[in-house]
Design brief:
A hairpin with a 4-residue loop joins β3 and β4. By secondary structure, the protein is α/β, with parallel strands linked by helices. It contains 3 helices and 9 strands; from the N terminus they run ββαβββαβαβββ. The strands form 3 sheets. The protein has a 5-stranded mixed sheet with strand order 5-4-3-6-9, with helices on one face. It has a domain of about 90 residues: Nucleotidyltransferase, domain 5 (2-Layer Sandwich).
Length: about 160
């Protein structure tokens, strides 16, 4: 740790002084340890809570839109089911969603084999169904949310081999 004066075995030898290096590394370590919790971001997750005995669950109407391979669209609300052509989708959805007072969510489902262009077109149509209202000089658009319908893993897919347990 320093310079040795040498001796009988040759000239002077120099050794690197590692003390400043260790000091710098320790300071950097402390800085990173302090700033790491600040850099970590938290993600808020909403978990449905259990209802109390005196609370009532609010059930809203589920609107399910299923695009078929033949170009038609099946619209269902759990009770009534209507098969319409693609151009009439927006009109039919507006009539189904006009009485929904809570958050408007449409569940979308697509048959296997529906072209990607039709998938995007149906989702754009669903998103555009929300009405625009004028409030003073500002226009406010009512948002319609899209949720993809989850398929049952045990359901048979047409044309697929049967699942084995």
């Amino acid at each position: 740790m320093g310079i040795s004066a040498g001796g009988s075995k040759g000239g002077p030898k120099s050794e690197m002084n590692v003390t400043p290096l260790v000091d710098v590394v320790l300071v950097l370590l402390v800085i990173f340890m302090v700033t790491m919790p600040v850099m970590m971001r938290s993600i808020t997750i909403e978990i449905p809570r259990d209802l109390e005995a005196d609370e009532v669950s609010v059930v809203s109407t589920q609107v399910i839109v299923k695009a078929l391979v033949d170009g038609t669209v099946d619209i269902s609300d759990g009770v009534n089911s209507t098969n319409v052509q693609r151009p009439q989708l927006a009109k039919e959805l507006r009539s189904r969603l006009k009485d929904v007072a809570s958050e408007k969510t449409v569940f979308a489902d697509f048959e296997d084999g529906v072209p990607w262009e039709q998938v995007v077109s149906v989702m754009d149509t669903i998103k555009g169904v929300g009405k625009v209202t004028q409030e003073g000089t500002n226009s406010v658009r009512e948002v319609v949310k899209i949720a993809l319908k989850k398929r049952d893993k045990n359901a048979a897919v047409p044309g697929a081999a049967p699942a084995t347990p």
